[in-house]
Amino acid sequence: MQLFRFGLETYINDISGYGAKLYGGRWNNVGNAMLYTACSPSLCMLEFICNASGIAKTVQTSLLTLKLDSKVKLEQLTINEMPENWQDVPAPDVLKRIGDSWLKGNTSVGIKVPSAVMPIEFNVLINPLHKDFSKLTIENIVKMDIDKRIIK
User: Are residues 135 and 15 in contact, defined by beta-carbon separation less than 8 angstroms?
Assistant: First the structure.
């Protein structure tokens, strides 16, 4: 299975989940490492643009392609399992509790969750402390700028 990350060129090859550990995210509280990925390159770029707080206009960006061994099983949350306000910005704290609980349970290396910006597509949250994390490898990194029409 291929997974994708879009981000700052400087940090694109860091798949440790350290950034999410430092700053938290929609699905994790500060102090819990989590790697945010998407199932498509366009979704990960869209997620980056939505969360980049204006810096997208001034930075060098890249697309990271990851490969997860096909034998590795992922968990999945569907839209029907999400709380009513799951797409709110800022994200409701219940999502952080769900993500932190999943990390603590250590039941799988990844969990597919609906994207708040494109609910028919999925992000995959990765637990860098899971035993199967070593089955996630960097396949490719490509420098890729965001089209200026998107970030006017």
Answer: no
Tally Cβ neighbours within 10 Å of residue 152: 5
Q: In the block, which residue shows the tokens 């990194």? A: 141
Q: How many angstroms separate the CA atoms of 6 and 141, rounded?
A: 10
pLDDT tens-place string over residues 91-124: 999 999 999 999 999 999 999 999 999 999 999 9
Amino acid at 135: K
Q: Please report, for the chain, the start and end positions of each structural domain, with discontinuous segments joined by +.
A: 2-143
- Three-state SS annotation for 11-42: CCCCCCCHHHHHHCECCECCCCCCEEEECCHH
Token representation of residue 99: 């993500």
Helices (H), 7-143: 18-23, 41-51, 93-105
